[in-house]
Structure formats: C-alpha cells, structure tokens
Design brief:
By secondary structure, the protein is α+β, with helices and mostly antiparallel strands. The chain has helices spanning about 5-10, 155-160, 165-180; strands at about 20-25, 40-45, 55, 60-65, 70, 80-95, 105-130, 140-155.
C-alpha cells in the first residue's frame, strides 16, 4: 500500500499544465497600516517552460527567459512573490477499524505543495481607446491586463544564487561583516563558508 513517501517519490508527482498554483504578496492598494498584510492569489499553470519568451524590461531592453506561463488573473506589483504549485494526491493508510480483525486500507486525500518559482511579471495587451470631445485626431492605446503571469522556475533561481560570482559576492559580504564585528547573528547561507575557508 502506498504511504506518504511513495506518494512523494511517485513519477506521477510532477508539475503539469492545468495544476493549481498560488502566490503570496502584498496588495499595494491596501498593504496594511499597522502591519504588512500579505494576500494570496490563485491560478493555474497554462504552459510549461518549453521555449524562451521575450520580455521587455522597463528600460526598453529585451531578454529571452525560460518561464512558466500561468493564468492567475495577475496584476502588476507581485513580481518577486513566491509561487507554489498544488498537486492533489491520494495515499493509502492502514487503520484499525472497530470490529475488523486486522488493519484495513483507507484512502487519505492530501495535497502536495511545492515551490514552483518566483512571479517575474505579467503580460499586457495594447487596446485601442476611443476619444471624445476635442480629442479627435491620432490614436490612443491603453494596456489591458491579459491575466497571464510568467514565473521563473525554482531551479533557475537556485542556479542564479549558486553562480560563482554571486557566491563570491556573498563571501565578500560575510567577510566584511565578520571584520567589522557588527551585524553577526551566526546565521549564514549554506553556500558561504567561513572567511578564509575554501569553497
């Protein structure tokens, strides 16, 4: 009978189109007055990261990124929010039932939650707008939210933070903090060895 470990190691336990996801961030129109009050937003995976998409940055530069596309009624302001996928699963547990001479198998519904990645942006659709009054010439367009977000996969984030130059930068900061004698809490990234130690 499959237990929890079997469910977690099952080949069927994989990210796929249509699966539910949620991400947590701040609703900037009302982030909270006495404290930061995060909100959860929900959606579904629309496309797997099979080929790069071109994304335009605010400075006008473009970059090709391998990302998930997600239908999540997204809106600007949630970039950087961790996105989690939800996998519905069933495990079978053996339970003692009154009157039964031996334990009996009982289905136990569960959900496996994993880090999908980070919300990195959303898509707008340029829509023509009608003009009224004295403004009759020219063309006005306005961005309409497409409801489609793109999510940088978790493995790409790990690859970035473990890149040699990023590790070196963390080591330099750790060494500077240690040398100054301030700000040390005893906590550090696993990838940052003590100053003077080899990688």
């Amino acid at each position: 009978m499959p237990g929890l470990r079997d469910v977690l190691q099952s080949e069927s336990l994989r990210v796929d189109v249509g699966q539910e996801l949620f991400f947590v961030g701040l609703f900037i129109q009302h982030a909270g007055e006495d404290a930061m009050l995060p909100v959860a937003r929900f959606g579904n995976i629309s496309r797997m990261p099979r080929e790069p998409i071109t994304v335009e940055r605010r400075d006008g530069t473009r970059e090709s990124l391998l990302v998930y596309l997600a239908e999540c009624r997204s809106w600007g302001g949630h970039s950087g929010s961790p996105a989690f996928w939800v996998f519905p699963a069933v495990r079978v547990v053996m339970a003692n039932v009154q009157g039964a001479p031996t334990p009996v198998p009982i289905s136990d519904r569960m959900e496996v939650v994993g880090l999908l990645g980070l919300v990195s942006g959303h898509f707008d659709i340029e829509e023509s707008a009608e003009t009224t009054g004295d403004i009759l010439l020219g063309k006005i367009t306005t961005p309409i939210n497409a409801g489609m977000a793109f999510i940088t996969p978790a493995e790409e984030i790990r690859a970035l933070i473990m890149r040699d130059d990023v590790v070196d930068e963390r080591q330099e900061r750790a060494a500077a903090i240690a040398a100054s004698g301030t700000g040390s809490t005893g906590a550090r990234f696993d990838s940052v060895p003590p100053p003077g130690a080899s990688k």
